[in-house]
Write a structure and sequence with these properties.
The chain is mainly α and about 170 residues long. It contains six helices and no strands. It starts with 12 loop residues before the first helix and ends with a helix. It is a multi-pass membrane protein.
């Protein structure tokens, strides 16, 4: 009978595991300074105004409020995603052939139009009825209009940035 030679193998789980974790998370860089810029301040304002709109308009008693809440929630999700992209530096790490400024600009133009429509529909619907929750729903529409202005301002700033980037 032949006997195979045995080779001792030593595995150091601790050192390999910590090296892999550190290497896999190296790309994350928290960019707190972004929220000190005009774009970052506008994103925070948009998130706060969206939360106020959701709190005032929920629950939806009219069909118009359903659309208004849809518009506010969709735009809120978009702002949160863009905020994380800037906060974590995702757009700087990903080497995708995407024009990030143009993508964000298109997102903000669509969000501005959606919020504008939702706010006007919400305001006109609640001004024509006499229900218990009329005051807070009119207030939600008012904050929606202010949020629309904030989104429009962001879209304008992104358009100027896009124009500047193309000229250089």
């Amino acid at each position: 009978m032949s006997r195979m030679s045995e080779t001792p193998i030593t595995i150091d789980h601790q050192s390999n595991h910590s090296r892999n974790d550190a290497a896999s998370l190296n790309w994350i860089q928290f960019n707190f300074d972004y929220f000190k810029t005009n774009g970052g301040i506008l994103k925070v304002i948009q998130m706060v105004l969206s939360i106020i709109c959701m709190a005032l308009a929920a629950p939806a008693y009219l069909n118009a409020t359903h659309f208004f809440l849809f518009a506010v929630v969709i735009t809120f999700i978009g702002v949160v995603l863009w905020s994380f992209a800037y906060f974590l530096g995702i757009k700087d790490v990903l080497s995708l052939p995407i024009n990030w400024t143009l993508s964000e600009f298109v997102n903000y133009v669509i969000a501005t139009m959606l919020l504008f429509l939702g706010s006007i529909i919400q305001l006109s619907s609640w001004l024509s009825v006499d229900l218990v929750y009329q005051g807070r729903n009119i207030a939600a529409a008012f904050f929606g209009i202010i949020d629309t202005i904030a989104f429009g301002l962001s879209a304008h700033m992104l358009y100027l940035q896009y124009k500047f980037d193309r000229s250089t």
